[in-house]
Amino acid sequence: MSASAIVLAVAGTVVASLFALYTSFRLSKESSRTSARLIYGELTRNSAAVAYFLRTGTWPRAKVDAPVWTQRSESIAKMRRVVPFNSIYKGYAALEALAFVAQEGDRLGPSSQQILRTEVDVLRNAISMAGEIAKIDRKEIDENLKTLEVRASAASASAFVHVQLGTGFVPPEILRHVWAQAGVAHEALGQPSEAPSDQTSSPGTETRAGAPDARLMRRVYDAQHSRTGLRRHQARSEGEPPVADITINEIFDAMGNTHRFLWEAFRCDLQEFTGSPMTAIAHYGERYDNVYWDGTQLVVGDGDGQLFNRFSASPEVVAHELCHAVVSGLAGLRFANQAGALSEALCDIFGVLTAQFAASQTTEKADWLVGARLLRNGDALRSLKSPGTAYANDPVLGTDRQVAHLQQLVRTPDDNGGVHINSGIPAHAFYRTAMALGGYAWERAGLIWFEALKDPSLRPASGFTVFAGCTVGSAVSLFGEATPEHQAVLAAWEDVGVHPRPRPQAATPMA
């Protein structure tokens, strides 16, 4: 072999090696950036508990968890610099320390303030580091860091609201506005006052005629504004007459109406998913601003009286939370990204349908609002008819960020991938289907959506296109091809920019 050939061979080997090293470096860098984005989202989500504590002096009932860090920390550890891994690792440790300080501050004495400041600084540094690696816009990083500013005495801050973090009807997007504007809200809205009593039926009145199903068993407990020992005081159970407490009766009626709606409209027994007796906790916490299903029971707050009325006054909100048990049980949709947005949309849909069913409302007469009686100053929290218009320029809530078209899809590490923002897309598709068909929305549009929820092709991580395909398939199965129902479903998804993915065909058995 000639000398030139040897040189070329060696050069080729060197170039190939360098290219392989470059490719490996580039892939490693991209992997680190992806991991950092996910870690950034997890850190900011967990830090919301810290922000709430700094504003109110109360630690919310929320678990500080770190599944993303557990899965992705290795890619950060492999970076050339040691500083990123150490900084982020310490940030997660700071979260645990802050949770401890928040709950044991009185026992720690004066030293708790110094520990608080130190650990918050560590957490802020971790968020900043993860954001820089992830290439997050610096303005967004700074906005998140601003919520973690330590005041002179966090423990003496006004307890404006109490919230359930990471779960419940009121989404984190709104809660962050509340925390950020807590001082403004306290001054602007004045002292707490009793929620209007003329916004609901008389105590114990179930708005739709007919006795509950014989198998229905309900129990409502009075937490008496405590967060522990929730089932010590039973306030009302099945077969007992209405009580003097309007909140107890509203919750009791909403549970019955949700059960009756699902059974009469879809032959779905709610108690197969909630357990029997169906259990609810009223008067949870002090001025507690949320309602949530925790997997075994419904927990209902009274609202702060400034921004939120009592949550029991919005039957569609109570139904929304109960329907999480059904949606989770039937489809097991993950509460993140498009799958999570689908879960939220379905619960909004079945929530408003429960209210429409109880009031015998047609599509034309319904207002299609979710949380219409919830806000003291505002229309609602969400609108199926016109996502993004439920409230605007509110000094505390800000402006409704829900979207109604796939082109507006919001990609964010917050709110589990924007589940409450992007839920407007499938929810609006349902609204358009229901309006095209007219009459009672649960009879055709609702039945199509509910049957789609049971489609075996639906998976925990399924997105909009897959579920859209399921609704098209159920419309054909229930009403036939090229029928008004089939056409209405196709047109509705097209109007929101979603192209239904055809369902996989079942295998034909061989003769």
UniProtKB/TrEMBL annotation:
Residues 194-205 have a biased composition (Polar residues). GO terms for molecular function: metal ion binding; metalloendopeptidase activity. Keywords: Hydrolase, Metal-binding, Metalloprotease, Protease, Secreted, Zinc. It comes from the Bacteria. One of its GO terms (biological process) is proteolysis. It is found in: Secreted. Residues 331-498 form the Peptidase M4 C-terminal domain. Its EC number is 3.4.24.-. PANTHER family: NEUTRAL METALLOPROTEINASE, PTHR43579. Extracellular zinc metalloprotease. This is Neutral metalloproteinase. It comes from Geodermatophilus saharensis.
